[in-house]
Automatic annotation (TrEMBL):
<protein>
    <recommendedName>
        <fullName>non-specific serine/threonine protein kinase</fullName>
        <ecNumber>2.7.11.1</ecNumber>
    </recommendedName>
</protein>
<feature type="region of interest" description="Disordered">
    <location>
        <begin position="1"/>
        <end position="21"/>
    </location>
</feature>
<keyword id="KW-0723">Serine/threonine-protein kinase</keyword>
<dbReference type="InterPro" id="IPR008271">
    <property type="entry name" value="Ser/Thr_kinase_AS"/>
</dbReference>
<dbReference type="InterPro" id="IPR050588">
    <property type="entry name" value="WNK_Ser-Thr_kinase"/>
</dbReference>
<dbReference type="Pfam" id="PF00069">
    <property type="entry name" value="Pkinase"/>
</dbReference>
<dbReference type="InterPro" id="IPR000719">
    <property type="entry name" value="Prot_kinase_dom"/>
</dbReference>
<keyword id="KW-0418">Kinase</keyword>
<dbReference type="GO" id="GO:0005524">
    <property type="term" value="F:ATP binding"/>
</dbReference>
<keyword id="KW-0067">ATP-binding</keyword>
<keyword id="KW-0547">Nucleotide-binding</keyword>
<feature type="domain" description="Protein kinase">
    <location>
        <begin position="32"/>
        <end position="325"/>
    </location>
</feature>
<keyword id="KW-0808">Transferase</keyword>
<dbReference type="InterPro" id="IPR011009">
    <property type="entry name" value="Kinase-like_dom_sf"/>
</dbReference>
<dbReference type="GO" id="GO:0004674">
    <property type="term" value="F:protein serine/threonine kinase activity"/>
</dbReference>
Amino acid sequence: MSGPRRCGSRRPAVVGDNTNGYVETDPTGRYGRFDELLGKGAMKSVYRGFDEELGVEVAWNQASLSDVLRTPDAVQRMYSEVQLLSRLCHDAIIGFHASWVDLPRRTFNFITELFSSGTLRSYRRRYPRVSLRAVRSWARQILRGLAYLHGLDPPVIHRDLKCDNIFINGHEGRVKIGDLGLAAVLREAGGAAHSVIGTPEFMAPEMYDEEYDELVDVYSLGMCVLEMLTLEYPYSECSNPRADLQEGHRRQAARRLLPGGGRRGPAVHRQVPCRRVQEAVRGGAAARLFPPTRRSLSASCHRRDATANNIIAACCCSLFDRQHQ
């Protein structure tokens, strides 16, 4: 793989005061960073930035080299995210613009698309009353993004899909998948990944067996939809989510999706045929609802009603123990 991509060498012509209140600019002067923190993760901070050439706001992602270079895993995670983003192009995947290393400041920087409303998790909590139609729309867009990733040659597994890694522009309801730092590239179609990595509450059980494929992302999508519907973080009732997940404990929030399950979540059971819910709960339903072929997954994205029902049924599947019913 090649190193971080640098911006073009020529600074665009600007009109008026070209400082704009920046605290720093990229090497070409095209991108400027404001002292406005939008978010902070384990590896990087995200600031509001501005692209003078296109006249649009951007997300300026910045990581300290001392943090990035602390461990080989940290280097690989940051490098993988930039390399993957730089070669992906899909309307459901966060857009990438440029990257560079600032040696005087000892920072690694990259520019991505800005989402005015932040993460889907924070947005959902800001607006707790949304219709099932909105959740369907978000889930369908995410599914299209997954179909794109899984359809690449070689396929890409996100491995850390959760509402904190999905971003939204609230004024138009567009969502996109981001944070590909833990993504894995399968070296061949039909191959398997082996590392146990990700967020336990959203991880498919087979990930603990250290041999899995891209369908683990579909399981994670089911958990995302569960959170969208109930406003509950998966396994929030458990003191040790990782242990409980491995032991196959049932999800309390599952009952919110079924008849008589409580008042907080929407009555989604009326939207899913009873037979399909029963199949999902019995076990092994994920393989039937989402056949393990990229062609089937991609095709399902365009079947509006079937996709909505399948996604919701996949939630039910991910809530229950699939081996001990």
